[in-house]
Amino acid sequence: MKNDTTELTATIPKIDPRLKLINAKIKKENYKPDALIEVLHTAQNAYGYLPLTILQHISKELHLPPSRVFSTVSFYHFFSLKSKGEHTCLVCTGTACYVKGAQQILNEIEKHFQLKPGEVTDNNKLGIQVARCIGACGLAPAVVLDNEVQAKVNATEIVSKINAKIGK
Amino acid sequence: MNRKDLQTIIYAEKAKEENNKYKYKIHVCCGAGCISSGSEEVLKKLQEEIKQRELENEIEIVPTGCMGPCNQGPLIKFEPNHTIYQKVDCSNIASIVQNQIIDKKPIEEMLLFANFRTKAFINAQEDPFFKKQLKITLKNCGDINPEKLEDYLVHDGYKALDKVLFEMSSEDVIAEIKHSRMRGRGGAGYPTGLKWETVYKYISNQKYVICNGDEGDPGAFMDRSVLEGNPHRVLEGMLIAGYAVGANKGFAYIRGEYPLAIKRFELAIKQARKMGLLGNNILGSNFSFDIEIRIGAGAFVCGEETALIASIEGKRGTPRPRPPFPAESGLWGKPTLINNVETFAGIAPIINNGGEWYSEIGTPKSAGTKVFALAGKINISGLIEVPMGTSLHEIVYDIGGGIQHDHEFKAAQTGGPSGGCIPAQHIDVKMDYESLINLGSIMGSGGLIIMDNYTEMVDVARFFMEFCMDESCGKCVPCRVGTKMMHDLIKKINDGKGTKIDLERLEELAVYVKETSLCGLGASAPNPLLSTLRYFRNEYEEKIQKA
Looking at chain B from residue 152 to 211, which residues have their Cβ under 8 Å from any Cβ of chain A? Predict the structure, then answer.
């Protein structure tokens, strides 16, 4: 909680280029409250996650109560309030991947890096996530490593690939 | 651009195609599956190879959408012989080109399905995988470049739109769709023509058309492949729907997990706008229509129509009670037509060939074809399209090439977390809406996961219940609390700590959740549990006895 309040009192630098992107999107959508999700997509693309200060900014610009913005952000899996880490490893746990052993792969990754899904290492190098089907069922079990789909993975192979990414 | 201009363009493109100086065409599958397996590098390498051999004037390379057998990717197809090579990588391109084009001796051990069939077919169309299929929705997927509008135009693209705008009234279009007996492909199977007619009948100054591309079912990727492989077909379907119901604005709601589908659909919209196929007075008619994309933010419940509408309005995607149905009061309170991607993709062929033609395909109650995403413990997984009423046995053994490692078939899961499983004793079931409901499953959107005898059904039930528990939006108590309670009970049994009373409670709860939940997600959440209990009760009992 302590972190949250310090973040709230922090101000956004006025010439942040990422903020410009968000403002441009808000303007393009005519400051309509309906455009909230669209604006959140833009913000998350720009920052990689949704910092609280940015959420406040969006709520002010779209004339929406902060509670509405926060409740929308927390509702959708796609939006994250925390940084996802420099490198991300997303394990698909859809049905086809589950049938082909996605859980064992996830267990192995969890054990090896001492991380649970949704967590990031202390040095912010690696974040682990799970997804409910990325639609690559023909390639099950699938893992997405830094936006690149890895097909038909096995546990040891993927662990070493992650290690290579984070420079171990 | 008006009607005449479009026809001139189509004639010009067709003439170009006929006077084609290319002797061969090489199709490179660039669906998301093959791209993940490295088809973009293959495409690049192939282009280099052709250039190096100075064959650019004889061979045209076409990046296409999904060809079907995704786990055999990357795939490349040589036309006109329909020869497909599987698992192509950059290192063997040179030898493939040499053997196939120069020496005219295909490399048999690299042909599609060479590892399953005793003899692979040089003409892939003769393989049972393709022979048993009937492609209507996916007709041009894998044959045309999805990023080129001209390719679609040559393959009768926007012909149906032209016919509708200048030769048919709204009533005619609706009558034709009703006559086709097409049913919504999103899962529930509501008659499409009837839905259109209801929206048409409401009088309002503003109506909307929504394309539901929030394919949340784990294990389903039909909509993704259609949007990636032939986005213009979906666009055309939406336009025809807009004309029929009297709407001038459409939204395509596509999952955020499908960046390639979003990119290609965006491009299709841009191309269509430029050609005057979207915008004001389309092709010089009185009909105006425009489409916007909305990107889903990862919530399964948004596939439910009222939740999807809330999400387009920028809110939390929670469902609301129906009635009023969206046909009466949908997006921003206006009459709204919502159909699935696959439904829209099936519209143009119905207009072109007539409702009569479509209604004769399939079974009396389920007309037409259905696209399935075949995955799990099966030799050939990928995207298939078969006439309604094709038996599960044909799909698994003829099209899918049987179970991996020659294991035994145990069950097929249809309908995702809202569906159920079909056990081995019912493998001859005809795949249509009614037959599946009789077996306690549903057609659903088309995910078909094959399980072998090593799959534990109690754990499968736990997996789906965990999914529903996570995805419950929390609005109504039966779903929010019920799915959690059921999950805990299944987990307890699965972990070998359950008792007989737990099982009784589970069955009691399932009925409550089913009967009292607000929307389809909650009402169907107990289905996988009930279905596994119906056919594999012994597995539950064994676990309890061991405890």
Answer: none
Cis bond before residue B80 (omega within 30° of 0): yes
How many angstroms from the chain centroid is the CA of residue B368?
A: 14
The span from the CA of A8 to the CA of B465, in Å, is 38
Q: Which domains does chain A have, with CATH numbers?
A: 2-75 (no CATH), 87-165 (3.40.30.10)
| Alpha-carbon gap, residue B447 to A137, rounded angstroms | 10
Residue B166 CB burial class (10 angstroms; 0-12, 13-18, ≥19): exposed
Q: What angle do CA A145, B110, B380 make, to 5 degrees?
A: 60
What is the pTM (predicted TM-score) of this model?
Answer: 0.94
Which residue in B298, B312, B464 is closest to A76 by CB distance?
A: B298
Our CA-based measurement puts residue B528 at a distance from the nearest CA of chain A, in whole angstroms, of 12
Residue B519 is classified by DSSP as S
**In this complex, is the C-beta atom of B455 within 8 Å of any C-beta atom belonging to chain A?**
yes
Best mutation site among A98, A137, A139 for testing chain B: the one with the most B CBs within 10 Å?
A137
In a 3-state reduction of DSSP, which class is residue A52? helix
Cβ of B317 within 8 Å of Cβ of A33? The answer is no
pLDDT at A7 over 70: no
The partner residue sitting opposite A95, judged by closest CB among B36, B73, B447, is B447
Q: For residue B150, what are its two tokens?
A: 């001209």
Distance in Å, alpha carbon of A100 to nearest chain B alpha carbon: 7
* CA-to-CA separations, B473 to A33, B88, B246, B530, in angstroms, rounded: 22, 44, 33, 22
Phi, psi of B423 (to 5 degrees): -80, 170
Q: Is there a contact between B422 and B430 (Cβ–Cβ < 8 Å)? A: no
Do A16 and A61 touch, CB atoms closer than 8 A?
Answer: no
Instruction: List domains and CATH numbers for chain B.
Output: 21-131 (3.40.30.10), 149-358 (3.40.50.11540), 361-452 (3.10.20.600), 457-546 (1.20.1440.230)
Q: Which of B158, B190, B159 is nearest to B177 (CA)?
A: B190
Query: Strand A148-150 relative to strand B59-64: parallel, antiparallel, unpaired?
Result: unpaired
Sheet holding B409-414, edge to edge: B382-387, B369-376, B447-452, B409-414, B420-423
Spatial contact of B38 and B92, defined as CB atoms under 8 Å apart: no
Q: How many residues does chain A have?
A: 168
CB contact under 8 Å between A41 and B216, yes or no, is no
The C-alpha of B450 sits at a distance from chain A's nearest C-alpha, in angstroms, of 8
Positions of E strands within B81-179: 83-85
pLDDT digits (tens, 9 = 90+) for B119-157: 889 999 999 999 999 999 999 998 999 999 999 999 999
Work out the pLDDT band at B118, boundaries 50, 70, 90: confident
Inter-residue contact B314 to A35 (CB < 8 Å): yes
Cα–chain center distance at A60:
23
Do the Cβ atoms of B365 and B434 come closer than 8 Å? yes
Q: How many CB atoms lie within 10 A of CB B114?
A: 18
